[in-house]
Every structure is written in C-alpha cells, then in structure tokens.
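WARN  no MSA supplied for this record, continuing single-sequence
INFO  ligand: flavin-adenine dinucleotide
INFO  echoing inputs
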Amino acid sequence: MTDFLIIGGGIAGVSAGSELAKLGRVTLLEMESALGYHASGRSAALYEQRYGLPSTISLSAASADALWDREVLQDRGLMLVGGLDQISDGRREAEQMEMLEIGLDAAQKIVPILNPETVGFVAHHRETWDIDTDKLIQSFARDIRQNGQIVTGVTVDSIERTQNGWRVHAGGREWTADIVVNAAGPWADHVASLARVSPIGLQPKRRSMARIPAPGGFDVAQWPMMLGVGESWYAKPDAGAFIVSPAEEHDSAPMDAWADDMVIAEGLARYEHHVTEPVTRLETTWAGLRSFSPDRNLVLGPDPQVPSFVWVAGQGGYGFQSAPAAGRLVADLVGGRSPELASDIVMKLSPGRFQ
Ligand SMILES: Cc1cc2nc3c(=O)[nH]c(=O)nc-3n(C[C@H](O)[C@H](O)[C@H](O)COP(=O)(O)OP(=O)(O)OC[C@H]3O[C@@H](n4cnc5c(N)ncnc54)[C@H](O)[C@@H]3O)c2cc1C
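INFO  complex generated
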C-alpha cells in the first residue's frame, strides 16, 4: 500500500514525486527500463522563462530558484535570427521575449557563421540557460527514494477504483494506493481511460533533432542557442557538437518517436539559409513527443470528477523549465495547501477547465 502511485518516470512524474514524498509514501512506476527514456530524454534542455503561454511563464518563473538550488543551470543565452523578410516579425517576437535587437556585426562577434547576405534581423539576450536534464531527473528521483520507491520496466495495464482508493496492475504485480498520479506524457489520456476517467484530449506532437559536427570546426561551446523567427528552426551547441531542430509540431500517436528524414532535411535547409557553413554530415537524429492539451496550458491537479486521480500532463515543450513549480502546485493541491501561484493561473492549469 502506498499513498501516491505515480505512473510515468519522465520529468513530470519525478518532479511531482519529489514534492509528494514530503506528504506520504510514493511509488513511481515506469514502463521503460530507465527514467527519462521518452520526451524527457530527448529535449533541447533549455530554460527560457519567457517562452510559452502566460501560465507556462508563471510556472517557469516560479521554478527558477529550485533549478538554481539543484545546480542544474548553465549559461547559454539566446539569439533570435530572422531573414531579410522577417524584420517586423522578428521585432515583435524580440519584444515579447524581452530581447535586444543587435546589428549584424555585433551578432557575428557572438556567432561568426551568420550569413550577412541572408540574415536581416538579430536579437540577443543572456538570460537563457541550459538545464542538466539528467541531473535534474536524478535529483528528483533521490527525493522520491527518501520516502518511497521507483520501479522501472513495469507497464501499468489496469487501474481499478476500490472502496479505499485504487488497485493497479503492472508487470504482473498488484499495487494499491490512495491516490493515482497520471504523469504518463503522451500516454496520459490512455492511462485515464484505463482508470475510467474522462480523457483531456491531449495531442502528442513530434519534434525532431539532428546532431551535426560543430560548424566550420569552430569552438561553439559559448555560442547561444539560435532560434529562427517564427520558431521555424533552432540550433545550439551540445557537448562539442551542434544540434539543429526543424522545430516541427506534427501530430503523432503515443509511441517511441523517431525523426522523419524529410522533415530533418527541410529543417536543416532553413538553418543553413541563415549561416555560411553548410551541413556536411549528420552524426545522429532523434525525435520526441511534446504533448499538448487542447488550449496548450499544462494540466495540473486532481480530476474534478475523480479527485483521487491527479493529472500532471500536457507539458508540451516546457516540461523541464516548469517542473519544480508544477510539482509543488500538484502537491499543494493534493495536500490542501494554498498554492503559491495566483489563483487565475491555477484555474488555467486545472483539469476542471475541460469539463
Ligand atoms: C525535441 C524536444 C525538445 C524539447 N526542448 C525542451 C526544452 O528546451 N525545455 C523544456 O523545458 N522542455 C523541452 N521539451 C519538452 C520536454 O521534454 C517535455 O515537456 C517533458 O519531457 C515531458 O515530460 P513527461 O514526463 O510528461 O513525459 P515523458 O518524458 O514522455 O514521460 C512519460 C513517461 O510515462 C511512461 N509511461 C507511459 N505509460 C505508462 C504506463 N502505462 N505504465 C508505466 N509507465 C508509463 C513512459 O514510458 C514515459 O517514460 C522538449 C521536447 C522535445 C521532444
């Protein structure tokens, strides 16, 4: 018997578990053989506080202190890059993200491969950080193990309500719990249907990534993340190499996602259009699923019809940067404490908004 049974060992599950372990005993079940195998092992690992909807920005801002305390942030910076026909769009986006427009000469001092013949707009700021995502997952997992257990390699395949709580079957074993926490990422609606709880209408969307050698043999370690205006591509240093994403959002079923070659090729072409160094070789490619609710706000808290079933879902492209505050909000709501976030934000994140 456990107080909280969490389904899903991505960042959503471990961050909620870290906070819930302060309230009671936690059991986290993950179907893969390791934590963070799906979206949480495939992200761009960036913390950009001004990225996303207002509710996401609030969660990300409220997560900053915990991310610093856990020592997972490292300087990166962000550079918004637009073509000659994207100057007005670039200015609008730069204003939204509180970035400073800079001239091409200044920009080339930071990223020497910007192409003067094709780049029409650049803005920059330093207040964007890399997240050590593995360290963050392991840090939350340690908190869970202080008052509970993590079991990998078990797929939850039935969830039954009992008089006192829940009976869950996974990996041929039975588990009982007072509260079930649904942190199953792209599978969260499926998990809800196993428990006979109404689904939210979550849509997993694939996003691909390619790793290429450092362009032109440059030492790219200090370069900022480069983001194409309109989120049409992005690129950033990654362990001495460079990762480039087409930044696509293609609907997908919940699955072990893989990159689409054509989408990667088109994304690389959009990146190459803005730089002087061609892509000569792909080291590897991968893809992950970013899961969105119908209004693209996260879904955090007890289900309104079945309060002992708690949602931690719809993290979209923000699961890491919002994780500490998302976990705290879930624990506040479950524990009957008043949340630190403003009530209109809590409402925007509530599963009740879909009923
Ligand atoms: C290419 C890409 C770039 C990204 N960049 C960023 C970024 O820069 N910054 C940021 O903050 N976020 C980013 N994200 C988003 C972030 O990765 C996700 O929001 C986050 O990983 C979602 O975490 P999750 O735990 O909800 O889902 P997942 O990581 O998918 O975890 C869900 C887990 O549930 C398990 N599960 C499902 N069903 C069952 C079952 N029946 N039984 C047991 N286990 C089950 C799965 O195996 C899985 O491990 C990016 C995502 C992608 C794909």
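The chain has two domains: 2-67+132-200+295-354, 78-125+204-292.
INFO  checksum written, moving to next record
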